[in-house]
Design goal:
This protein is of the alpha/beta class. The protein has one domain: P-loop containing nucleotide triphosphate hydrolases (Rossmann fold, 3-Layer(aba) Sandwich), CATH 3.40.50. Helices cover 33% and strands 25% of the residues. The protein has 7 helices and 10 strands. It has helices at 48-56, 78-88, 104-114, 120-129, 145-158, 175-192, 203-206; strands at residues 6-15, 22-32, 37-41, 63-68, 71-72, 89-92, 163-167, 195-199, 211-216, 219-222. The chain has a 6-stranded mixed sheet, with helices on both faces. β1 (6-15) and β2 form a beta hairpin. It starts with 5 loop residues before the first strand and ends in an 8-residue tail after the last strand. The mean pLDDT is 94. It binds adenosine-5'-diphosphate (ADP) and magnesium ion.
Length: 230
């Protein structure tokens, strides 16, 4: 039997504030199997980005365990955990976070190269699928918002991750660009067969995803079968 891709148990995270610690995540549990898709919803400030950052290793937590492929990430050295994450997780942010000094081709290949998983044929196919053919030598500032986010999707997929984490990936785009980017993201995730955890405010954006969760007062609720609560 294969191990669950992502296993989160009792994850607890507080931020220090002048009024004392603010507990943003309170004993959060979650399982995600290979290839599964999940929408993470919740009011602004409910801790969605925090949860994504903890999974991605961008911040530390107070208690609990995070396992990737059954491996407890806290039991590894920081360097080993970072390498495992680079190989297995692709990240997409609302603000794109492209490298301004690198052209399209170099931005797309960046994470795959860092992970030692660069595959030129796969990157070329991604450029084509993302509608970026002919734009390889442009820099991010020479692209539209929709093109920048498509490039960020390519970067996230270039190392052939098992899991893509996307934080409101269409939140910075106009409606038309958002629809096109979302469609492309879901198609590529489906073709590649990787798991997706997507943060979104929008029930329409969440609708195509198999599982729906909501963060509220630090706790995570499965609302897949309770659409009124989403
Ligand atoms: N680095 C930080 N230091 C202190 N408080 C933070 C920090 N990051 C987030 N917070 C607070 O934690 C809560 C959850 O934030 P966040 O995870 O960004 O929520 P969401 O993505 O759901 O809008 C908010 O109250 C936010 O102000
Ligand atoms: Mg957020």
């Amino acid at each position: 039997m294969t191990a669950t891709l992502l296993t989160i148990d009792g994850l607890t995270k507080s931020y220090p504030t002048p009024q004392g610690p603010l507990r943003v995540l309170d004993r959060v549990d979650l399982r995600l199997a290979a290839g599964e898709s999940l929408a993470l919803m919740g009011e602004s400030g409910s801790g969605k980005s925090t949860l994504m950052h903890l999974i991605a290793g961008l911040d530390g937590f107070d208690e609990g365990t995070l396992r990737l492929d059954g491996i407890d990430l806290s039991a590894l050295t920081d360097a080993t955990a970072a390498r495992l994450r680079r190989e297995r997780i692709g990240l997409i942010f609302q603000q794109f976070h492209l490298v301004p000094s690198l052209d399209v081709a170099a931005n797309l290949a960046l994470q795959a190269r860092l992970a030692g998983r660069f595959d030129g044929a796969w990157c070329a196919r991604l450029i084509e699928r993302l509608g970026l053919s002919g734009l390889e030598r442009r820099f991010p500032e020479q692209l539209s918002g929709g093109q920048q986010q498509r490039l960020a999707i390519g970067r996230a997929l270039a190392a052939r991750p098992a899991l893509v984490l996307a934080d409101e990936p269409t939140g910075n785009l106009d409606e038309e660009a958002a629809d096109a980017v979302l469609k492309l993201l879901l198609e590529l995730i489906d073709e590649h067969g990787c798991a997706l955890m997507m943060i979104t405010h929008s029930p329409a954006v969440a609708a195509p995803l198999a599982r729906h969760y909501r963060l509220r007062r630090g706790q995570l609720f499965d609302v897949t079968h309770a659409p009124a609560l989403t």
